[in-house]
Amino acid sequence: MVVCPQCQFENPNLNKFCQSCGTSLTQKYCPECGATVPLNTLECHNCGTVTGTVYLAVVSPSSLVASQPDQLESLNNDHLEGANTVAESILDRIETEPLTPDTPQESDPTPAAIEPEEEIFSQADIEAITIAPQDALSPVADPSPQEDSLQSLELPIGAYLDPQQRYQLLDSLPPLESGKTVTVKVLDTQPLQVSPLNALEKQASTPSDPQLETFIITAAGPYFSLASEHSNYFPRLQDAWEQPFYSVILLEDFTNLPLLSDLWSNKKNTAQQIVYWLEDLVKLWVLLEPWNCRQSLLETQNLRVFSEDSQQLCLKQLYFESPNSALSLSDLGLLWQELFQQSQRTLVGSLTEILRDLLEGKITTIEQLQQALTVVLEEINCPSTPASRPIDPTEPLLPSLTQAPTVILAQKLKSLEAVGRTDIGRQRDHNEDCFGMETQIKIEETPLGQTSSVRGLYILCDGMGGHAGGEVASQMAVDTLKDYFQNQYPEGLPTAEILQDAILKANEAIYTENQQGVRSGVGRMGTTLVMALVVGHQVAVAHVGDSRLYRLTRTHGLQQVTVDHEVGQREIQKGIDPELAYSRPDAYQLTQALGPREEQFVHPDVQFLEIEEDTVLIIASDGLTDNNLLEIFGETQLAPLLKPETSLATAVDSLIALANQHNGHDNITAIVVRAWV
Predict the structure, then answer these.
(1) Phi, psi of 275 (to 5 degrees)
(2) Which of 161, 230, 331, 593 could cysteine-pair with 526, CB 3.0–4.6 Å?
(3) Cα separation values, 6 from 17, 19, 22, 87, Å
(4) pLDDT at site 611
């Protein structure tokens, strides 16, 4: 099946347009120049921007080389003619009756694939694949036939890595060596088609083929488990299969991400950030140990960072430890030593002693190491006050592998970023929405290094009152509140009383304008308000009207934080059944707004939130939230915001476009704030 990128409708393989919304299933627009580009090409023909879907393929010698020598002679024909892989046969068994993977029936054709609109490589190019002669593939005479077979296998750029001719090599695949893996990049020429492995994952199915089940458990299993529970550290698993000569694990491509070692050397990164990375390495050591993959941390080229803005550490791939390896925390200490030596950074505070104790084997447990790093953070954040709080050695310092993300300490808010957009919509002739935002990241130098603090002010207003009314009211409210919190109350987290005072001042400004203009009835201008003030790891939220604030986290998903001030909600709070409450003709009429009435009629709702894990705040006018749009499309449009590689600006633009497509009856405004911990 082919999944529509716009509405997620599942279409038959041969469809070129979505049966539900009409979106093209073979083309897309170049994000740089807007040209129409086929999905099965790597670059835009107009500007050269990479538009294709690229994965990293981890290729290793297959266990089938030794266990099924009778399949070796058919490799050439299988590869060129597109015979079923084991993984594809699993998908067949999901959709039809079970088949024996080694004896496919002629009456059961291979699943049809979308025909590419243009061929990138001809059949002659594919036939040029270097394959050993048939006699070299036979295991009869040679005492080590799999070695000769592996050495003879070589696939050029442009060949397909899979028999279904979906994943096209962007790098040549060199001859394989027994016991070693090779990584190459591949282009997904059918990116909207669900992979057999993802189909299994969505249906929570267990592979019925014993060989594939063993392969997934041993090789792909760590990616399944780790990426599902800790997606911010590990690449997503796209597909996995095993062929006679080689097995393949297909991963999200992190090869273009910055190296941790490069950012470690960047003097702009604070001492705090260095300690955060050290803590991440400790956490990863714990996560990887049950899978025997701690070697992944000891390869410096494998340690990546999603972006300089997010500073989120991640791994390019997993490296399995050799059976005879006996890794210990001193090996982690050697990695730390290498990073500091390469960067020529000074070890702040007690890091010198910690590193020495690691290398000498004096720190032998994760708890001791986590304790020591906690002390370093206290030294950095409070340089004039020694860390005096005794640490209970029995206190759990790391989460278990099945536990939800740990509550993060206040000083661990690493960065804050925000993007705001407003749009007139498809039916209005002017825009009455207004927003204001400011993000401050303050860095201070101390003798022990740098400390940083973050603060953000985000205000959204949806005006009412017609021409020269609604847009005036919303702008006045934004300007009044910005002035209040930037000048009159510039520091710290405000109390509920201070927030209410600021909002009443905005109401007074608009109300006075209404009185002076002798406005009456529906001619009186007003505005809704929703505001978030972020100070460190705390958020103050206040709102009046039906503009909303949502919170998105990995632990709790999408949550609506504010409750609309409208008649329907008022009735529900009185105990009326929701369906009956919203059957009233005035159900969506506002019960509160800024400007039309005096301050005694304005009662802002104020609440406070803690940022305990990576968090996204979505602040929106009703042009975006009407018809449960965010709830319906949360999985596809909002969940990617928790991935550091997702561009915030692009995501907000997509939300505006989505609202225009499904709502569009009103002005649309959104502010998206992303906090990394």
Answers:
(1) -70, -35
(2) 593
(3) 11, 12, 9, 27
(4) 92
pLDDT digits (tens, 9 = 90+) for 222-272: 888 888 778 778 998 888 888 878 889 999 999 999 999 999 988 888 888
Count the alpha carbons within 13 Å of 549 in the hemisphere toward its beta carbon.
Answer: 28
Residue 105 confidence (pLDDT) = 36
Tokens 């049809």 identify what position?
A: 112
Residue with token string 């304790």: 371
CA–CA separation, 546 and 13 (whole Å): 43
Q: How many Cα atoms within 13 Å fall on the side-chain side of residue 318?
A: 31
pLDDT beyond 90 at 406: no
Instruction: For 548-569, write each residue's pLDDT tens digit.
Output: 999 999 888 999 999 999 999 9
Angle between helices 351-359 and 366-381 (to 10 degrees): 160
Is the pLDDT reported for residue 474 higher than 90?
A: yes
- Cβ partners under 8 Å of residue 389, min gap 6: 378
Which tokens is 26 given?
A: 């073979």
Provide the b/e sequence for 583-592 (b: ≥16 CB within 10 Å): eeeebeebbb
CA of 501: how far to CAs of 279, 496, 505, 599, in Å? 41, 9, 6, 10
Determine the 3-state secondary structure of 236 from DSSP. Answer: coil
pLDDT grade for 411, boundaries at 50, 70 and 90: very low
Cα distance from N-terminal residue to C-terminal residue, the chain: 38
Residue 276 near residue 214 (C-beta atoms within 8 A): no
User: Quick one: how many helices (H) and strands (E) in the chain?
Assistant: 21, 22
Instruction: Tell me the two tokens of residue 231.
Output: 């997606």
Task: Enter the tokens of residue 496.
Answer: 């509920």
Tell me the C-alpha distance between 215 and 144, whole Å.
23
Tell me if 45 sits within 8 A of 35, measured CB to CB. Answer: yes
Distance CA 216, CA 212 (A): 6
Cα(414)–Cα(647) distance, integer angstroms? 18
Distance CA 71, CA 500 (A): 75
Q: What is the pLDDT of residue 390?
A: 37
448: which DSSP letter? Answer: T
Asked if residues 209 and 224 have their Cβ atoms less than 8 Å apart, the reply is no
With b for 16 or more beta-carbon neighbours within 10 A and e for fewer, the 470-480 pattern comes to bbbbbbbbbeb
659 Cβ contact list (under 8 Å, min separation 6): 423, 425, 623, 624, 629, 668, 670
Q: What is the pTM of this model?
A: 0.55
pLDDT tens per residue, range 115-140: 443 333 344 433 333 333 333 333 33
Q: How many C-beta atoms lie closer than 10 Å to residue 322's C-beta?
A: 11
Mind giving me the DSSP string for 642-668? GSTTS-HHHHHHHHHHHHHHHT-SS-E
Say whether pLDDT at 480 is over 90: yes
pLDDT of residue 523: 66
pLDDT at 527 over 90: yes
Distances (CA, A) of 404 to 98, 178, 315, 327, 644: 38, 39, 21, 27, 19
Q: What is the mean pLDDT of residues 383-387?
A: 43
Enter the tokens of residue 444.
């201070």
Query: Would you call 302 helix, strand, or coil by DSSP?
Result: helix
Contact between residue 617 and residue 456 where contact means Cβ atoms under 8 Å apart: no
Quote the tokens at residue 42.
Answer: 């790597």
Token digits for 145?
Answer: 């036939």
Contact 261, 303 (CB under 8 A): yes
Length of the chain: 677
Bridge partners of 464, per DSSP, are: 526
